[in-house]
Amino acid sequence: MTIRILIADDEALLRMAFGTVLEAQPDMAPVGEAADGAQAVRLARELRPDVVLMDVRMPGTDGIEATRQIVALCPQSRVLILTTFDLDDYAFAGLNAGASGFLLKNTRPEELLTAIRSVAAGDAVVSPRITRRLLEHFRPHIPGGSGAGTEHGERLSRLSAREREVLVQVGHGLSNTEIAAALYLAEATVKSHLGRILHKLELRDRIQAVVFAYESRLVHPA
């Protein structure tokens, strides 16, 4: 399958550089370029890309608002935010807007390509540091008390015992490799379990699974 990618960045040279890297990949095809957030939203609706590479700071509609609109209007398109600024506020805002990943622009090309493939496959791409900070950010907003609410409890009942075990590990911020080691499973098996978890719980990606694990009190704040 060819991953169709929309590049949104206000710097023409960066758009060209990203396009050159992507065109060299047999499984990727840049399908459009946007110089601002409004154009990114418009092109996403027209082109229906699999992945949108989204800059944060752009004139007019910024990357965060563009992400929010694209996620709402084009649910099949995944957004991978790229920024020069390693700031938690950008990561939180982007992920809350529905982005599936957050990377710095100085990321090595091979890491960017891996991230695009992961996001296109339905996974989330967030550095361990950002994941830890994300959990800390959500902890004050997690309801107290024991047991899950009615809605969360009903959705949790859809999972098998093994799927719950995997979700707990995801909630603790572990990668598929780490979960496989912890539960003595093959990494491919963990990935299959995660796919079924997302489908059964009607979640978009791994980040939403982490939040659900905390909100349902399946995982408790430390």
Report on this structure.
With about 220 residues, the protein is α/β, with parallel strands linked by helices. The protein contains eleven helices and five strands; from the N terminus they run βαβαβαβαβααααααα. The protein has helices at about 10-25, 35-45, 65-75, 90-95, 110-120, 130-140, 150-155, 160-170, 175-185, 185-200, 205-215, and strands at about 5-10, 30-35, 50-55, 80-85, 100-105. A five-stranded parallel sheet has the order 2-1-3-4-5, with helices on both faces. It is globular, with a radius of gyration of 18 Å. About 40% of the residues are buried.
User: Structural class per helix/strand content?
Assistant: alpha/beta
Low-confidence stretches: none
What percentage of amino acids are in beta strands? 5-15%
Amino-to-carboxy terminus distance: 41 Å
Global shape: globular
In N-to-C order, the SSE pattern is EHEHEHEHEHHHHHHH
Mean pLDDT over the residues:
84
